[in-house]
Specification:
heterodimer, A: mainly beta, 3-stranded antiparallel sheet, B: Jelly Rolls, 3 strands, globular
Amino acid sequence: MSSEGPNHNEFDFEFLGNTTGEPYSVQTNVYVNGVGNREQRLNLWFDPSKDFHTYSIFWNQRQVV
Amino acid sequence: MCRFLVDETPIRVHTNLEHKGIPFPKDQAMGVYSSIWNADDWATQGGRVKTDWTHAPFIATYKDFEINACEVAVPVTSTENAKKCASSEDKKYWWDEPMLNELTIHQSHQLIWVRANHMVYDYCADTARFPAIPLECVRHHH
């Protein structure tokens, strides 16, 4: 999900393919004011091409204090 | 705050630490997009493995998009968005419920499990790339 413009914000789910038999991975990234470089990547514990799964982003304005 | 979940399992938490002067994506309206693209310059073992186009077409299928949000008209200024979509006395959004702002004990354990067993890269731990740890990565206690 993303806003528009050069100083945009963005939350990403990126599904990375692989050679046959190797695990798929999911990379997430966060852009703040147009700057990303906040990648995290994990190997999924299931084969995402076999079934539908739920991928969600929960976002609110609240601070953690 | 922002949480990423896979089948209800939290895989990432990006905390709003604005009180520490760390910018948080908050004021701009967002849309949901999906696309498919070739990233064999970086995604495939750093680009060492190239896409085998003999396997094409590559198909990604999505269904049941569900969006729960405060709707805004565009264009509208960021501050107007933030004001319109903030919960207040007479208008409470379920996603602003205080209890949702922290992971449950169970979710915390799930996140620890994911990070210990499935995470293969975390920019917060990449000291070669970021000799100074990114501000939002510094562990906070509260």
